[in-house]
Amino acid sequence: KKRRRRRTTTTTTTGIVSPCPSPPHPSSAAAAELDDLCRRVVVHFAAPLVTDTRTRPYTPREYLEDLFYTKADARRFRAEFRLEKRRIAAASKAAMAAKRGSEG
């Protein structure tokens, strides 16, 4: 028959529950220290968690295309990125070849 480890919880001053495992050997010094630590842990939050709420006007549907990239834009960005990577790799390769040529 398997024994399950009990878990205790500590409630903080704000009502948030912090799990602290029950020690396997309650008589050990480490277990007593862990138990003491679990009792002392307290979390404090600022009283007003939300200090301000701002709203903006509704965006008409006809303006949405101006606010977001299209799939074609994303494809173009990826193609430009791949081309730039190839250019950098080619320049690096040429620089390495030139360096090897000047050393020999």
UniProtKB/TrEMBL annotation:
Region (Disordered): 1-29
Protein name as catalogued: Uncharacterized protein
Organism field: Odontella aurita
